[in-house]
């Protein structure tokens, strides 16, 4: 017979006073985990490619402790790819460029107390120049679809096969067609990206912002907006994070970030703060790439 979990209710401020969570007045950063996957890829260009991928996941830290989430809340899992040695699959010939037109998808399984479910993370490739004499790492940013881990307990996130759709181009923008790759790994290889602890607890705090989106970009700036809902206390404003670092605090549901580097990929997140300084969990990440100068 399955154990029954009795939910209990806490507030962010009471957690801070009790010392249950360190620094909980601010949003908890996602716990970073990583696993190395060695893939054998069949490509549309002909050659079979041996590819190494570091899969880096940002597990939720929204509950009472690392890698945790309240079972009434959603679990947001960021994931990045660090792909090594794509040259054999591409018509390099002196150098080609990959950017956000190139994509990847990563299959995964979530194994928990309510059984096994499948999911798939979608990625966009960061701008990368690949030459025939350079062992360049190709990086991609993405996320798994929102998960609801409603049965309290531990959930293992295990990664599986990888597919690529690469669209190389010359430096002048001339497209070189699409190269696809279907990649499988040794089933005996460790595939555990991390474990999420779903807790029977209700944490009272502001509602996290939703639907972050890009309004406009220039080679060195971006304007973002998002949706937000009030809770018990009035909202003071919103903390904006870029690539894991705090950028600014704004009072409106929009921000313009300047001084950025052209042709670079970023992930932005938003946090609501109320007049008592209580903060929400972080929004879902928004991935975008600035245009070339």
From TrEMBL:
Cross-referenced Gene3D superfamilies: Immunoglobulins (2.60.40.10)
Residue ranges annotated for the Fibronectin type-III domain, each copy included: 208-293
Keywords: Carbohydrate metabolism, Glycosidase, Hydrolase, Polysaccharide degradation, Signal
UniProt-recorded name of the protein: Fibronectin type III domain-containing protein
Disulfide bond listed as a keyword: no
Keyword Signal included in the entry's annotation: yes
Pfam families: DUF6801, fn3
Signal sequence residues: 1-30
Listed GO biological process terms: polysaccharide catabolic process
Gene Ontology MF term list: hydrolase activity, acting on glycosyl bonds
